[in-house]
Structures are given as structure tokens and as C-alpha cells.
Specification:
The chain has 150 residues and is mainly β. The chain is 11% helix and 53% strand.
Length: 150
């Protein structure tokens, strides 16, 4: 049997990733059905980071671009913008990504998203020490939030 050398850095990464994934709880993910001809839609969910973190990025095979966005009213004008530096996830507090607020914006859709299909999302988190980790999520495509019990 051949033994491969393992560096301390590789061991720390291998030990950190599963632990981090267990410290982030994602509930009720869903992606809004896109209107025919529309090249963008939103992904929504509830995220609780046990030890605190930042949601710093996202990707999906169904979209050319995925960004963390915020939608808010400025007087009578609705504004949407990318969240610079990521979305803060305070320790133990649930942060809602929902229509009209924070969400994952999926842009440059590669194909229409059919109701009841499933979308793969990769969410990128950064912990307090600056270590990045990825969490894979499967989100159903729907017209409204769906309540799931995990």
C-alpha cells in the first residue's frame, strides 16, 4: 500500500469544511419561476449560521451570473443592488432571503426554469477567520415559498 503525504494545511482544510457545513442551516430554499423571456430570477431561503459567517457568493449551472442582492424601497423607488462584502449572518440568528429583501439573484439564465423543476445552487460562506466554505443546495422552482420540514 502506498501512503501519500498529507500536509498540515490540507488536513486543516479537510477538517474545517465538514464542520463548517454542519454549522450553517439552510431551510425552505426555492427559486421563483421566471416569466417567459425573462433572463433573471431570485432564489430565496432561510439561513442560520451557528457561529456567525458571511454569505459572500453563489453560483448555479442554470445562470451565467449569481449575486447576493438586496431590494429595498428608497422613498417611492424600489432599488436593487449587489451586497458589497457579503451578507452578514449573525451567530445563531436566522436571516431570511425573501422577495422584497435579500436574495440570490440568478442572471443570464441559460434556459427557462419550469415550475416543479429543481435548481442546484452553490453558496459560498466566509467564517470569522476568513476561511471560505461552500454548501450545495437543491431548490425547487415555484411561484411562491414552499414550506419544507427537514
Amino acid at each position: 500500500m502506498k501512503h501519500l503525504p498529507i500536509t498540515l494545511g490540507a488536513l486543516l482544510i479537510a477538517l474545517t469544511l465538514p464542520a463548517f457545513a454542519q454549522s450553517v442551516d439552510i431551510k425552505n430554499p426555492w427559486v421563483r419561476v421566471a416569466v417567459p423571456g425573462q433572463k433573471a430570477t431570485g432564489a430565496f431561503m432561510s439561513i442560520t449560521a451557528k457561529d456567525g459567517a458571511r454569505l459572500v457568493g453563489a453560483s448555479s449551472p442554470v445562470a451565467g451570473v449569481a449575486e447576493i442582492h438586496e431590494m429595498k424601497m428608497d422613498g417611492n423607488v424600489m432599488k436593487m443592488r449587489a451586497v458589497e462584502g457579503g451578507l452578514e449572518l449573525p451567530a445563531g440568528k436566522t436571516v431570511e432571503l425573501k422577495p422584497g429583501g435579500f436574495h440570490v439573484m440568478l442572471m443570464d439564465l441559460k434556459a427557462p426554469l419550469a415550475k416543479d423543476a429543481s435548481v442546484a445552487l452553490t453558496l459560498v460562506f466566509k467564517d470569522a477567520k476568513g476561511v471560505e466554505s461552500k454548501v450545495e443546495v437543491k431548490a425547487p422552482v415555484a411561484t411562491a415559498p414552499m414550506e419544507h420540514k427537514h
